[in-house]
Structure formats: C-alpha cells, structure tokens
Design brief:
Layout: E1 4-8, E2 25-26, E3 29-30, H1 31-39, E4 46-50, E5 66-69, H2 75-85, E6 91-95, E7 98-99, H3 103-110, E8 118-123, E9 126-133, E10 140-144, E11 150-151, H4 155-165
Parallel strand pairs: 1-4, 1-6, 4-5, 8-10
Antiparallel strand pairs: 2-3, 6-9, 7-11, 8-9
C-alpha cells in the first residue's frame, strides 16, 4: 500500500532540559534515524515537521526529504498544521524521538481492519505516539504493537531505550 510519513521533529524537549531529542544518540545513532529507518519502505515521501525550536542540525535531514515548518505552538497544534498541509493519505505520523519502531509496526497500521480515520499504535491500551491518518475525520481505533517501543521524553526513558538496545 502506498503511504506517506510525517515525522514530528519540532519540540522544545522541556522534560529533557531542552536537549535536542531527535539528535540524542541511542544504540549508536540519533533517535531520528531510528524512526526514519522504520519508514524507509514506504512508497511515498517522508516529511519532517520542524519548528523554530528544532535544532539547526536537523536541517541536514531535509536534503532527501521534504521539510515543512510549523510555528512551534506545541505538538497538537503543530501536528494539526502539518497534517492539514500534507494532502497524501494514508499518512503515518511519528515523533522523532522513538526507539523500537520497526517496519512491522508500520505495516500493522497500514493493514488495520475497519474504517477508522485514525489508527494508533498502543502498548497495553496506552498510545505510543505513532498513528495512521486514513481520512480527515476523527473516528479512532488502535492496534496493539506490544511494548517494545520507547518514546524518549525523559532521562529515564533515555536510559530505558539504551537498555533495550543491549
């Protein structure tokens, strides 16, 4: 199935003291590269959403990818703006600070049954931050991905992500 992807990389990382989360190294490579590797198999474009809060070094990822700029108004608002800017559907949305996201998770979203407009990956019912936008409505469903994905928001999340690499 054809799909595009939107990687949200414009956060301020306030819970990490302003550290440039997408560029933090886990298992020997930046977090954003873990996410991009899981999305490489998609047949359409991968778009990065950056904001004034994004580290300047992220611009280097824009060469082979389309980058759009959001105002940095917070994740929900920047996601709304970015998703409404991108016409392609289905659209996978993922934050740039994940470890453990794999191609099989993306495929599970794309193959999710039903007619939901939004399908979200979960671990024991809790959202993991990765969703498939099929349409423009808000009918939701979820797919359990297991608990191997870590969304790195705090120093303890970073430590957990490193443990899972070993």
């Amino acid at each position: 199935m054809e799909a595009a992807a939107l990687v949200m990389a414009g956060g301020a990382a306030t819970r990490m003291g302003g550290a440039p989360k997408p560029l933090l190294s886990v298992c020997g490579k930046p977090l954003i590269e873990h996410v991009l590797a899981a999305l490489e198999h998609l047949s359409r474009v991968v778009v990065l959403a950056l904001s004034p809060k994004s580290p300047e070094d992220l611009l280097g990822y824009c060469g082979p990818r389309l980058c759009i700029h959001t105002p940095g108004a917070g994740y929900p608002e920047d996601l709304r703006i970015a998703a409404s800017t991108i016409a392609w559907r289905p659209l996978i949305v993922a934050p740039a600070d994940l470890v453990g996201l794999e191609e099989r998770h993306i495929d599970a979203l794309l193959k999710a049954p039903g007619d939901s407009d939004v399908v979200t990956l979960t671990c024991q019912g809790e959202p993991l931050g990765v969703s498939l936008l099929r349409g423009r409505g808000w009918k939701w469903s979820s797919v359990d991905a297991g608990c191997g994905i870590v969304n790195v928001n705090t120093r303890s999340d970073l430590e957990e992500a490193e443990k899972r690499c070993r």
